[in-house]
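note to self: the first set is below, dont mix up w the second
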Amino acid sequence: MNNFEGKHKGLYLLARVWKAVIKREDDYIQKALSLEVNPDLIEIKHNGTADYGKIVYVIKENTGSDGFCATLRFILCFLIFAGQHGFVPKIKLTKEFAYYDAEKSKEIPNPWEYYFVPQEENYDEGNALHVCYASYVHRDAVRNAYALNAYRAEDYHDERTIQICAPLIRKYLALKPELIHDANALLEKSRGAGKHILGVHFRGTDYKQGYNKHPVYVDEKQIIAEIQKAVDTGDFSTIFLASDDAAIGERIREAFRDIELLQHPDVYRSDGEQSVAFSESDRKYHHYLLGYEIARDMFTLSLCDGLVAGKSSVVFMSHLYKRSREEDYAYMRIIDNGNHVNGKEYWEQ
């Protein structure tokens, strides 16, 4: 490195790029342009001297617009990418995570560890010899190769994806014991009585707005009709309902008076059309609790014997968690009304 380059790195880089453009150095220009779109171009940083012989792959959530279970799907993509390239993953979310809670982070600095058991391998991103940061181009490369799209009904049944995700869930997405305990506790009495439990997920709030590429809303009438079909099999005497909608519980109680209905009672729900994920409240640890409630609902659904739901990341992940335990639903109905095709983007609201 010459003296000018060392003192004026920004100017040197600008001059180097300008020279490449003038001289039509196509290979150099193409490589520069490809960094953000080509997953095979891996940028390695040198942050220190630790973890010799390893490439630490740091997975950070870098958008605040992804819901809890959508984030889990994306992290699975990054974990698959890390495995394909022989990297050692380090999941370390940031303030950009939608469920980051300033108060909770005084106790637990890494928002990932609010809900998940910390990794056994404690790689030091700040002092590792070789560090690579997860990029959405890595996620998209994996998502295009594997069936990890919660908005395609056929992806719920892709055995190759289930088999590659199962060990990753067991190793990296192990939920904390208190969350698992709460999920089991709700179902314990019904299970002890030998009852079969039908898990139902009803996505209200922002799904009613019809965002681009998101599933077409499954309304109350449709979900009740599908629950009726499941109940008519004679296999279910209890319903567990997971929902962000404040009114759907009472509607289901009215429709199925002879069926026991279970819900976690402390879930923050809404009767509006804004996602509760981005809601504000004066309750202590509100954003942390939003994530806890979604994670608990998702896991509770995975403990049920049957499942009726529309397409969503919550349902997709509950199915993956169930299959990661080498279990399967005795009855499974994923309602597919298609997806919206319009210019209405949820992050613009």
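second set (the one i keep forgetting abt)
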Amino acid sequence: MKTSRREFLTSISMLAATTAVPLSAFSFGKTDKLKMVLVGTGARGTLFWGARLIQQYGDILEFVGLCDSNPSRMEYVKKERLQVSCNTYPDYEFEKMIHETKPDLVIVTTDDANHHKYIIKGLDMGCDVLTEKPMTIDEVKCQGILDAERRSGRNLVVGFNYRWTPYVTKVKEMLMNKAVGEIRSVDYHYYLDTHHGGNYFRRWHGLRQKSGTLLVHKSTHHFDLLNWWIDSDPAEVFGYGDLEFYGSNGPFKSDKCRTCPHTGECDFYWDISTSNFRTTMYVNHEHVDGYYRDACVYRDEINIYDKMSAQVKYANNVVLNYSLTTYGPFEGWRVAINGTEGRIEAWLDIPHLSDLSVDPADMHDIQMDQNFEEEGKAEPIIMHKLWNEYKRVNVIQTRGGHGGGDQRLQDKIFRTPGEKDPYDRAAGVRDGAMSLLIGVAARKSIESGEPIRISELTDLEPRVKRI
């Protein structure tokens, strides 16, 4: 028996909220497609939540509206990138779009500081909502989202794709099987190189009022992964951070690379005209909003941290040591998980530990590329047992589509929402909140010099077990 579109979205969101309610699968009819609107037509919205959904799931869904603060870019995306026939709306006509199109699902991919506006309005107007990470950038907006989901009776899904890659899923499986016994401490370190790391300081992410700092925008990926692995909520956070490399610390100054008098001297000079995608997506429309995609990484307005660390104590007494560096010579990460019976060590893309087949400068673009074809290669996880020799556990991993996580996440949402996932990878509002609140708490700790309790930020009380 075929259920309704509403029941379908409810089943997805029940799964994301990790309830124990039985789920029902959904079967679309040819004339009964899921109606969606997209708010935010930048790269992430256009490529991942736009073009890919149309290409892979066009038989079961359709876009009935697009919304953006830059109407010029939005029209370009509609005609050239998505090739859809739906109506477009400026950002101040969001409510009009909802009234006219009556969507089942609102997808939010704006800059982080504006996520809450469309999430809350979408929920209150009777829609289910899917948002890019981070859910929002501070505790006040987070509480507003929590309240809106409760009073509306609708549901929010957060698009964490990191959990869905085979490599990190294997780590989760090992932890679920008590490979290290009970987890006691975790060390996680992420290294952004000067290509990808520098990119954050070129864009709106370099302004904390838009991104909440990289402790929220970038680290929320890592904190969600760690919360999922550790299977507990964070309870208390202490942080350190500073801006010492980018921003006003730089030797040169300009508004953007194209007009910079130091192109021959600056290591960060980037000719955006060599990228047809970024030229047609951003340069051709910057006259509308003044947003320069190739802004100077040394401009004085940058006010986020470029080095940061956090120590997190979890409700189950696990201690996490975390760091993020934004100007490394390579990009990758490593983790060590210590337990009562052993230790897991894992890493990806560390040059002296991995056989890299791609140029590090191209790494992030390849991860974003949904069409990048690469034969999967074995990546090792090292399993140490107390009193025993270590052993290697090899996992086949690719790079395109964020290590295969993008496809698996979207398949779960749109193809198989009713299938039980033994690893509990779908993420709901509580997951979104707990991951971003670590970053918020770390930021507040850096500013105050004091540890910050998660329970003081919103009305969510940390749980010893995540579910």
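remember for set 2: The first strand starts at residue 34 and ends at 39.
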